[in-house]
């Protein structure tokens, strides 16, 4: 019967076994550059902002959205918290700016004194994101 135990120096991938060689010269420099680039991308990509909930309301939030938030903070804290992590929050865009609807829209409904649409479509987004909406519908 063959012995299945292996010396740690003979393990696949172990540098001492000769299976893989350490990086030298250009390869090592490329790896360092890669790590630096990825680190910079993560540092400047708002990842840190998503990790911490924001604690105060934007100064220019509309009266309609403020009314929504007073209720949603208590009734649906998960939805409120997700909005707090979003770019819309950081841009002073609240519930009503996206969910507000005209009374004749097919998905419009009355909700606590406001006419809203629960589902936000690319058409709804086009009010602020005209270019992106056009690309989506192309």
Helix-strand layout with pairing:
Layout (H helix, E strand, L loop, with lengths): L24 H19 L3 H5 L11 H13 L1 H9 L1 H4 L4 H5 L9 E3 L2 E3 L5 H4 L4 H8 L1
Antiparallel strand pairs: 1-2
Q: What can you tell me about this protein's structure?
A:
This protein has 138 residues and is mostly helical. The chain has a domain at 54-131. The chain is 49% helix and 4% strand. The protein has eight helices and two strands, in the order H-H-H-H-H-H-E-E-H-H. It has helices at 25-43, 47-51, 63-75, 77-85, 87-90, 95-99, 122-125, 130-137, and strands spanning 109-111, 114-116. A two-stranded antiparallel ribbon has the order 1-2. The protein is elongated and about 70 Å long. The chain starts with 24 loop residues before the first helix and ends with a helix.
Going by helix content, strand content and strand pairing, the class is: mainly alpha
Instruction: Walk across the major sheet and give the strand order.
Output: 1-2
The SSE string, one letter per element, is HHHHHHEEHH
Estimated helix fraction: 40-55%
Count the beta strands.
2
Number of helices: 8
**What would the average pLDDT be, to the nearest integer?**
75
- What's the overall geometry? elongated
Beta-strand content estimate: under 5%
Key structural traits:
138 residues, elongated, single chain
Summarize the structure.
By secondary structure, the protein is mainly alpha-helical.
């Amino acid at each position: 019967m063959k012995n299945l135990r292996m010396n740690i120096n003979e393990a696949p991938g172990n540098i001492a076994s000769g299976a893989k060689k350490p990086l030298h010269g250009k390869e090592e420099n490329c790896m360092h550059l890669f790590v630096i680039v990825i680190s910079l991308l993560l540092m400047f990509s708002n990842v840190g902002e998503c990790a911490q909930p924001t604690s105060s309301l934007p100064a220019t939030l509309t009266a309609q959205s403020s009314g929504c938030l007073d209720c949603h903070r208590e009734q649906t804290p998960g939805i409120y918290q997700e909005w707090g992590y979003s770019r819309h929050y950081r841009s002073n865009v609240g519930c009503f700016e996206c969910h507000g609807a005209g009374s004749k829209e097919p998905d419009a409904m009355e909700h606590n004194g406001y006419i809203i649409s629960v589902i936000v479509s690319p058409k709804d987004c086009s009010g602020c994101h005209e270019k992106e909406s056009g690309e989506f519908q192309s």
